[in-house]
Each structure stands twice: as structure tokens, then as C-alpha cells.
User: Fold these one by one.
Assistant:
Number 1:
Amino acid sequence: MGPSFSPPLNLLFVNAVDWCSSVKVASASTAIGKTRRPWSGSGDPEHGFGRFDPQEKWGGWLTAVDADSGRVRWKYKSPTPLLAAVTPTAAGLVFTGDLNGDVLALDAASGRVLWRDSTGAPIGGGVILLPDRRPSADRGLRRG
């Protein structure tokens, strides 16, 4: 999902993934992909997309950036990558979701978490707001 913008605060909100993998690159003589198959250039047949960080090292960030100056106004550190949409409101709230399955409401000016609710599944899609209802999150990711 892409960033979002709050005109009243002149802030861009950007979710990010902090989750790394180490890839051993294939030698030029063996760097041959297969048609219609994903390929990362890895020379390790058992770890085609590299060796991922252990889950306890995963994280994510929601960052608020001043749209004129580019200065970071605040950052929220999440225990899991943030892949969901970011939805700012005219009331000064920002909604998003994490891979723990939590929908979050943050104060758009400060980044302070005001509310959190579990959906029971990782959130990797849109977050929408309907009048007089709880926020709804697309649980676009499935476990196992």
C-alpha cells in the first residue's frame, strides 16, 4: 500500500517494512532463471529468496513527514512489518494495521497510539472508515 496525505496537517504518512534477508548471489555462469518462475538471483537453491531474519527481529515503521520540508515529524515503531494502508482522517487520526492483526488508531499530530483492536489475522490491505462504525481492515494476508 502507498503513502497517504493529511491536508490539514500537511503530513505524508508512510508505512514501512523492517525485515531483511541475506542473499548469496549466483555466479554469472549459473545465473539462469526459468520462464514464468520467480527468481531472485540467489545461488542458494534451498533459500531462493535468501535467509530471512528471525521473526523476533522483524519490525515496521509508520512515519509522518512534513510535505514541504521533508522533515520527519514522528515515527511509530511496530513489532511487525506494516504492509496495510494508512488512512488519515479530518479528525486528526491515522488508522493502519500490522501483521499481528491489530488495527491501530494514532494521533496524527504526535504518533501516539490511541486505540488498538485485534482482528485475529495479519492485515495487509486497505483500512476503511464508515460513519458510526468501527474501522474495517482487509485481512489480505493469511497464515499457514
Number 2:
Amino acid sequence: MEGFPQPEGKELIFKCGRAAARTAGARAAPGPRRAAQLTPGRAFMKALDENAEQYRKDATALGAAAAGAGGVEGLAGLEALSAMKAKAAAGALVYSRFVAIGLFRLLELAGAMEPAALAKLVEASGAHAAWSVGRALTPRAGAPAAKVTADLALYKSLLSKLSAAKELLADFAEREKRKAAEREAEKAKAAAEAASSAPSTST
């Protein structure tokens, strides 16, 4: 698509968001779905020509820097945020939900969870001036804090549903385990009663 900037897989905020989403999703997902998440993850890395280990290291390093930032002002001074803002100013930054999740994760790690923090970080990162990825690429559509908030609400809703499904399956498994134990106990009791009521063969 000539003339349109493309999503940048090597963008650190994007990496942080994707790593956070994958980790949170794996924790919230029911057991069988955890393994299922690995296949699309590998495909994603291959499509971006990324090294999975380096991807994780980059996301971890940014997370460590955010944890020591001390607040929004400290986060705004991070090299990753400055680079992101410069790309946005040049019209080369593409906004996606992973960017929103990445920004939110940085705020979590920095302990800056006051209501105004997200809007400040969106502006500091330049995301509000980024190209927006949705049903179509829209030049200068931008990603205002309201858009980021809506994307984060959707993300949290999905995690909540996965967590609820995990709890439901855990309850089901526990009930089945209890029923199986009860059935075994009943069989053992029936066998013992049959043995005790059987006529003796001794003379």
C-alpha cells in the first residue's frame, strides 16, 4: 500500500504491549488454550521476521526502565517514548491496540494509575498524532486518549471473559473429580457389603 506507513514490528511500545497481552492472555486462558496460543505467536514472529528471544528481551528491558521511571514525566523521558513521538511527528507511526496496551503496561509498571496519566502519556508518546489502524488506514485519524481508553476497555473485557471461562472449567473439573471419587467410594462400599453378606464356605 504505497503512501501508507506500515505497522512497525520493532516498535518498542508495540513489543511491550504484545508481550503484555500474550502473557495476560496465557494466564487468563483455560489450560488447553494456553498451548494453542503458541502457534499464532510463532507465526506472528515469523511474519515480522523477528527473533522471539530478542523480542522478549526488548520488552523486558523497556518494562524495567518503566518500573524505575517514577511516573508519567519519567516515562515521557524514556528513549522509547521519544523515538515513538518522533515517528508520529514524521507521520511514520501506526497506532494499534498493542500500542495502547503497551502504554498502559508502562503506566502499571511506573505506578502511575491516576485517571489523567493515560491521557498525558498518549500525548507524550505522540500516539494522538499517529496513523490509525482499524477497518481501514485513515491518514491522521490519530489515537486520542478516548480511543486508547476504548481499546483498553475491550482488552480488559476479553481478559475478564477468559478468566471467567478458566474459573468455570476449574469448577467443572473439581465437580467431576468429586463425583468420580464418590462413585469409587460407592463401588468400594458395595463390594465390601457384598463380601460381608456372601455365605461362608468354611465348615
